[in-house]
Amino acid sequence: MSALGSTKAISGFSVDDIDAAKKFYGETLGLKVTDEEMGIIRLHLAGGTEILVYPKPNHEPASYTILNFLVDDIDSAVDELTGRGVEFVKYDGFPQEENGIMRGNGPDIAWFTDPAGNVISVLKES
């Protein structure tokens, strides 16, 4: 077994505006967000997962999905987030519905971005 096999690990990603990120993740998405040293924030997710979000002046949005939220009811999740001001992304060539949900091509999924342009999804849990 690896020396790191029994250690806790957390992920992280950058944003260009930590205050906008704190408001988006805390207020819009309803996550618990805490302040850390050096202008970093920590997202506290269900199940004990934690993610560090750090400011980076030359931030470039991730070109891939950095965070997937597993949901039981994707329609309700999309409706609730839309009601909170989240805009879902539609990709060319993807068979997405008007509300942004793609069905029947793997798990049902809908993508949106945070204020820094990082891609996030809600994904129907199988």
Automatic annotation (TrEMBL):
One example of the protein's molecular function in GO is:
dioxygenase activity
Annotated keywords? Dioxygenase, Oxidoreductase
Supply the Pfam families for this chain. Answer: Glyoxalase (PF00903)
Say which domain of life the source belongs to.
Bacteria
> Which InterPro entries does the UniProt record give?
Glyas_Bleomycin-R_OHBP_Dase, Glyas_Fos-R_dOase_dom, VOC_core
Q: Does the keyword Phosphoprotein apply?
A: no
Q: What is this protein called?
A: Glyoxalase/bleomycin resistance protein/dioxygenase superfamily protein
